[in-house]
Amino acid sequence: MQWTDRIRQVKIFLVVAAILIAVASLLVSRSLTHDLAEQEKSKMQVWAEAMKSLSAADENTDLSLVLKVLDENHTIPVVVLNNEGVVTEYRNIEIKARNAKDSIAFITSYAQQMKASGQIIRISLSKNNHDYIDVCYDDSLMLKRIAVYPYVQLGVVLLFVIVAIFALLTSKRAEQNKVWVGLSKETAHQLGTPISSLMAWSTILKETYPDDELLPEMDKDVKRLQLIADRFSKIGSIPEPVPSCLNDVLIHVVDYMDRRTSKKIEMKTELPNEDVIINMNASLFEWVIENLCKNAVDAMGGKLGSITLRLEETDKRAIVEVSDTGKGIKKKDISNVFRPGFTTKKRGWGLGLSLAKRIVEEYHHGKIYVKNSEIGKGTTFRIELRKR
């Protein structure tokens, strides 16, 4: 849980850092964009005055300074319209047209867009204001790039955060896998010696008391322990799937659970008439169903109830559902039931369902999830296995 909490804290830190970087970037970019826009507006006012001087000049006027001002504009798109709306001058505009007529139409339309956005300076050429020119201008390419840059930067930061979180989760999962594999193999190793001794004592007891009715049941439990040890030893390796009958697996689980649970709990099966054959490791998959059934027994808390195992087959999938009439799962907990370390029991490590999920998804390439759950009514887990 400490590792999970640390991962959650790191994720929160990365998200908060990304938000702060994005907000700071947007504020700085907004300030730079505003300052640059004001500078360009000031330049265009000077440029418009130069156009006015050029329009009012005669043959004796020195135009060297005026022409220098006009020629120095290499970045800001500008269109000059007379009082009839006819284009008289334009600069720094990339024209997208096939011929001269289309070019004029394109520039005129562009100028109208500038006027609509308020980027216009009207220069009067006469005292009565009947003769004037409209200097329409647009943001320079540099200003547009600066305005877009923070959003690009925000995308890069978000991408970095996603990659960092993915790397953390991958590292976490790899570490959990090592812990599970080590724990499983050590458990199998530790169980091996007492199981061997029990098997030897069982053989001796059979020879000494051949008619004892309890010995066959004890022998079954010893074999069960051997099966459990075998399952643990397979965790971490890639067991070879073989064609197996799902009907038999479910019947075997019901038979085992029915003898070892309270008589208040009824074990039910809803199986198709025909056998459902699928490539699987029957021993590990049987453990998954047993785990779901044991959780269902715990959910009923010793009260009257039932556990139902359903099996159905489609063209592409075999579907197993384990339903109980227990206390149900809270909605806020449904997304966490398969998370390692999560448990609602007073005792337990919270590894059963996470290990079941790994067996279903990684070993059998299937899917396991909570189909539905209602407080006080029960829960249904659903397993979907692909047919091959």
From TrEMBL:
Gene3D superfamilies: Histidine kinase-like ATPase, C-terminal domain
InterPro entries (alphabetical): HATPase_C_sf (IPR036890), HATPase_dom (IPR003594), His_kinase_dom (IPR005467), Sig_transdc_His_kin-like_C (IPR004358)
TM annotation in the entry: 12-32, 148-169
PROSITE patterns noted in UniProt: HIS_KIN
GO biological process: phosphorelay signal transduction system
Keyword Iron-sulfur listed: no
Domain (Histidine kinase) ranges: 186-388
SUPFAM superfamilies named in the record: ATPase domain of HSP90 chaperone/DNA topoisomerase II/histidine kinase
Record keywords: ATP-binding, Kinase, Membrane, Nucleotide-binding, Phosphoprotein, Transferase, Transmembrane, Transmembrane helix, Two-component regulatory system
Catalytic activity: ATP + protein L-histidine = ADP + protein N-phospho-L-histidine
Entry EC number(s): 2.7.13.3
GO molecular function, one term: ATP binding
The organism's place on the tree of life at top rank: Bacteria
Protein's UniProt name: histidine kinase
Organism, as annotated: Prevotella jejuni
Lineage, opening ranks: Bacteria, Pseudomonadati, Bacteroidota, Bacteroidia, Bacteroidales
